[in-house]
Amino acid sequence: MRTAILEASPTSIRLAGALIRAGRLVGFPTETVYGLGASALDASAMADVYAVKGRAADNPLIVHVLNALDAGSVARMGPVAEALADRFWPGPLTLVLPRLDGAGTIAVRCPQHPVARALIEEARRPLAAPSANRSGRPSPTEADHVRSELGGRIPLILDGGPSGVGVESTVVDATELGLQILRPGGVSEEMLREAGFGVKEARLGRGEAPRSPGQKYRHYAPSVPVFTVAGGEEALKTVRAWAVETLRRGMRPGMIAVGDEAGGPWPAFLFADAKAMAGGLFKAMRELEAEVDVILALAPSNEGIGRAVVNRLEKASGGRFYPPGHALPEFGERRDEV
Ligand code: TXA
Ligand code: MG
Fold this sequence. Notes:
By secondary structure, the protein is an alpha/beta fold. It contains ten helices and 16 strands.
């Protein structure tokens, strides 16, 4: 299948809406990351989403709607959900709610991006949309990233420029009175608390069953290993020492950090703060995986959107997450072909 990339315009969005109604899949921008959209009313289109992504069948999709009223057509909102929607929609907050038909729960999100909104309008139905990456890979934040993930598998990608937030929406379980953050994201725990909502992040204890299927899968991982140092005074020094050690082993390091100096002759993505790092994290992983043997990252502090960045680094690192001062563990071979 040939994949067209069209700049988002009223005409291309109208075409995309028609494709969605015809049961086809469309890549499109949201304010968080690019999504892979399908009609939420079309079981066969949704099955294609799983096939195209290589996604596990037990990991449900988020349904995207234009407003709280439309959310009410698929989910039972309730007063707390209404209040959350009132304060944070449209925006990067996904609510897990009881399904209207009583069959379990459903995650609903009301995106802010004008192209995402126009597409939902043109499609005239809610859109089921996961991030537009192959399962387990970093999320796409530009149309071209979607092409490299899903090119040849979908008919159309709408190009709306880079996604702003850069990490996915915050997923909040609002099915019970005690709100729980299942995935930290664009709306931080602090923002929720400041708005008067008592929330806490659901962290998995040992042997505990995940509340959100997404919690149990490897995620956001580029094709080279990622090693992360938890933030702190000494952390940047540790990342630099790791980079030097990587060179000593005859391999090529790449760096992702908050800071303004790489400290050596390796490719580095340096960000002014955690918010900027959220915006560029997935792109940095994607560009570095093409030219280095290992990615060395400095995690920001867990505050605000920093928590979402740390979460993505934890998952991308797959447990290779160390305190400052830790020696660089052994890792695989130099790749001659990248
Ligand atoms: O920012 C976003 O949310 C992006 C853009 C495209 O909107 N979408 C996105 O979708 O990140 P996806 O499918 O990559 O992630 C959805 C997350 C997964 O962790 C999934 O397990 C969780 O939401 N989820 C979906 N339905 C759920 C449910 N009923 N209960 C608990 N967790 C659910
Ligand atoms: Mg995803």
